[in-house]
Input
Amino acid sequence: MIKKIFIKIKKYLSNKLLDISLNKKGKSFVFYYNIYCYFKNYTIRAQYIKKRYYVVDNLKTWQVYPLERFRFYVNGLKYRSEKISKEYLLKNIKFDDDDVIIDCGANNGDLYLSFNKKIKYYGIEPSPVVFSNLQNNIKNQILINKGLWKNQQKEIDFYLLDSSGDSSIFEMENYTKKITIETITLDSLIDKINKKIKLIKLEAEGSEPEILEGLNKHLNLVEFITIDVGFERGLNQEQTLVPCLKYLTKHNFELIDFEARGRVTALFKNKNI
Output
């Protein structure tokens, strides 16, 4: 009984310490976050260098923004990569060296952590601030600071909500700033790649159907598409499973796996490949 009480107290105190750290900034955040990690026997640590925040794990550094996202890394980068891989149903795919991966809505680049092969990675992230994290984390790959849409536009409204990683072309509640971004299409990107695409991961806070519309000419070159189809579209927070499913099944893709515990994702495979 005493042991159970002690465990509950320890859990409460550690969670409280994590909450305290995430409400701090700069060196104060690092101090409290690292105490929390030490208290929990986690090997991960935080650093604050030149006004930027980093996770440090076994000498590997990973730039993170915003601070709230540090919750995702407390168990280490390997754990984070395994979680992302599970959420996007990558267990169904056998990857080889030189496979081409297109990461739409790359954020900090966490999907890249999931691959131990020498893949060719294309990371697309429209948020200027988050894109700087992506540039720091992933070297010698193709990174694009633009949005994806059904057509190319020099200017389109983009609503920033970097604090939760929920920035979108569709207006949502509590967005912090509206900017304009340039968009490209998946077809125009694959035109330049000019190779078969092993996987497209698509997470665009509700604009997934429109982005798929921009993939028409080169659908035959794409083997797998994994999509976050959760309730994130616009002010009404609608799901995007139905329109994505209709579009892809119409173009000879089949739904081969689905995940609804936490992140809602669907994995599609090209029946011709």
Remarks:
- The mean pLDDT is 93.
